[in-house]
Amino acid sequence: MALKKREKLLVIFAAIAIAILGFHRLYYAPQSRRILQLKQEIKAADQKIDQYLLLTKGMGTVEAEVSRLERELKALSERTLKGEEFRTFLKHLAKESDSPQIKVVSLTPQEERASLPDGKKESSPFQYRRVAVQIVLHSTYSKLADYIKGINELPFLINIESLQIERSEEILPLLRVTMGLNIHIISL
Q1: Which has more confidence, 21 or 169?
Q2: What is the pLDDT of residues 117-159, one digit of tens each?
Q3: Strand 127-139 and strand 102-113: pairing?
């Protein structure tokens, strides 16, 4: 049985169609899925790289912030009084009483423990205390201004919390001044 030319052509086209279908199913479709999977992996890797780049930029920012905070802490530590320096500071406050225009009547320190937030224990070997000092003095306005300016220029962490100025007939021409200071002290 001999095939006619038309049948031979049909068989050839069927063989080509089967070959194309086999090629598609056995080679092209798996390769397409593999390429799609690799593209997704590349996209995920790119996202991770972007995250790492952001983290490294963030680390640089964090390191800069940490170094800035360390400098601030160092500056505060330098301005905070230590044990012996507190006595020197009190002597400095009382020293101004040599002038006839200013007289320190009383100097009363009252120690307060610095409280830690949320009741946590401090792991640092340093203990910070806040000492409130009440000063009563008799002074003129100009000498009082110099006295307060001298306190503010001290290289310590001092806050003037209250200042009360009264005129009293008993001590004229001087004024009665009551001043409240807060001083931060490090105990080693």
Answers
A1: 21
A2: 455 555 565 667 788 889 898 888 888 888 888 888 877 778 8
A3: antiparallel
H/E element holding 184? strand 175-187
Phi, psi dihedral angles at 85 (to 5 degrees): -65, -30
Residue type, 53: L
Top pLDDT among 100 and 140 is at 140
SS3 102: strand
Are the CB atoms for 113 and 148 separated by under 8 Å?
A: no
Q: How far apart are CA 92 and CA 69, in angstroms?
A: 31
Contact 165, 182 (CB under 8 A): no
Q: What angle do CA 121, 126, 132 make, to 5 degrees?
A: 95
pTM of the model: 0.50
**E strand or H helix at 116, and its extent?**
none
- CA 159, distance to chain mean position in Å, is 22
Give the CA distances from residue 52 to residues 47, 56, 62, 65, 77, in Å, rounded to whole numbers and listed in that order.
9, 6, 14, 19, 36
